[in-house]
Design goal:
451 residues, 24% helix, 43% strand, alpha+beta
Length: 451
């Protein structure tokens, strides 16, 4: 009996064991699924975090790209302003553009840069960029230009000036018994003067605020005097002509910009100029005097050969002011010229004789001018101005020369400027005399070239 019961018990045990194994296996499978789900959730969270990081990086990249584009835009604007400034100075070139932006010459690439350069090179004459810190350029009217030469560059300026003046003088030689009756002679003299001056000026920019200048003129003069000599009762008129051809007075100067101006801010420029007496001296030319002009009235007293220089050294100091007010530029200056006296001066008369004069001291010159410049288009501008000089009386041996008076010289000027190329400009100015002692008309042509 006992032997029969053992197999039943074994079968039941096996069934229990199998049931327990199935339960354990089911529990194991359920635990594995939970682990996988947990890992999958963790992976999903990591993917979401990576996506957020990627979005952040893309935002940073967009910001970087925006900053890069902004930087390139600023660099382009700086290059445009520099080209415009160089164009105003007459120094713009494609080599400069290539150095600034890495571009080639027209036709080799970057059409946008080519268009920008072409538009910048045609910046209006007389209007410099407001942030350049340099005076604006206007059509020049006076001898001294308004814009300083850039540092390291030089300007070569050939010029040609023509001046014409005429004057009439009536001298009564005798005495009057009653105001309507003259006992004596009437001397009538008409003087016509033509002066042609060819000059070569050179300016060099030591710094952006300081430049030095030298000017060498060559003068040709002709004078014609229609007169009737004293002491001659004939009504016939005599014509006395003379001419002169020689180097004029060489000038040396320096100009310095005193401040940083801008739009609606004035520019102040100080000037200093020294004039030599390298021209033919008026005391060295032969004077038409048979004996002595001081004590004897015989002869005309006029030079047989005209001088081309003043005969005196002089030093001029001045201050120029330029005030930009779009679209015009207002300018003006004041100057003071001191003429140095000469001792032991003698005049050459006929037959090689010398006439001793002593110490000659020309009067000082006080001058001022003002005007306005206006741009017409991208290449041309014009200016209108007024120039006035007051010349003091001349002294000889400490005494005012008889007949010497203070002389007023006034000129109305009109100037025109046209840019032929980025480095060359044609300037033309015309002056009309407003006083009797001022030349009736003057015409000046300048051609400054920048290198």
């Amino acid at each position: 009996m006992a032997h029969l019961k053992l197999p039943g018990i074994s079968a039941v045990g096996c069934a229990v064991m199998l049931l327990l194994g199935g339960v354990v296996h089911a529990q194991s499978v359920a635990g594995s699924a939970q682990d996988i789900e947990a890992r999958l959730e963790a992976l999903n969270q990591e993917v979401m975090a990576q996506k957020k990081r990627l979005v952040h990086l893309e935002s940073i990249q967009q910001q970087f790209t925006g900053q890069k584009l902004l930087l390139e835009s600023l660099e382009r604007r700086v290059a445009e302003q520099q080209v415009a400034l160089d164009a105003l100075r007459g120094t713009a070139s494609w080599d400069t553009l290539a150095a600034q932006r890495g571009a080639g010459k027209p036709g080799t690439g970057e059409p946008e840069l080519v268009a920008q350069a072409q538009s910048s090179e045609t910046a209006p004459v007389g209007q410099a960029p407001s942030t350049s810190g340099r005076p604006p350029e206007v059509a020049p009217l006076f001898e001294q230009p308004g814009v300083l030469t850039p540092q390291g560059r030089y300007v070569l300026e050939p010029s040609l000036q023509y001046g014409y003046s005429s004057s009439n003088r009536v001298a009564l030689v005798g005495y009057t018994i009653i105001p309507a009756l003259l006992i004596g002679l009437i001397d009538v003299r008409e003087v016509k003067r033509n002066t042609l001056t060819a000059a070569l000026s050179g300016r060099f920019g030591i710094t952006n605020r300081l430049e030095v200048e030298a000017r060498v003129p060559y003068v040709y003069r002709t004078d014609s005097n229609v007169e009737r000599e004293f002491g001659v009762g004939s009504a016939a008129a005599n014509v006395f002509s003379a001419n002169g051809l020689h180097v004029g007075d060489v000038e040396l100067g320096a100009r310095y910009q005193l401040n940083d101006g801008g739009v609606d801010k004035p520019f102040y420029i100080g000037t200093l100029r020294f004039k030599t007496r390298t021209g033919k001296d008026p005391f060295d030319v032969v004077t038409d005097c048979r004996q002595r002009c001081l004590d004897n009235t015989s002869g005309t007293g006029l030079p047989l050969d005209l001088p081309t220089g003043s005969g005196f050294n002089s030093l001029q100091a001045g201050l120029t002011v330029l005030y930009p007010s779009d679209p015009a530029v207002f300018f003006g200056s004041v100057t003071y010229t001191h003429n140095f006296s000469r001792d032991n001066v003698s005049r050459l008369v006929l037959n090689g004789e010398q006439e001793y004069l002593g110490t000659i001291a020309p009067g000082a010159v006080v001058g001022f001018n003002f005007g306005m410049g206006l741009a017409l288009n991208e290449k041309s501008s014009f200016s209108l101005g007024y120039d006035h000089s007051s010349v003091g009386r001349t002294e000889m041996n400490g005494v005012v020369v008889a007949g010497s008076v203070r002389t007023q010289l006034a000129t109305l000027l009109l100037g025109y400027s046209y840019r032929l190329s980025p480095k060359t400009t044609l300037n033309v100015s015309v002056g009309a005399g407003l006083t009797r002692d001022t030349p009736d008309v003057s015409l000046t042509i300048r051609l400054p070239m920048t290198f």
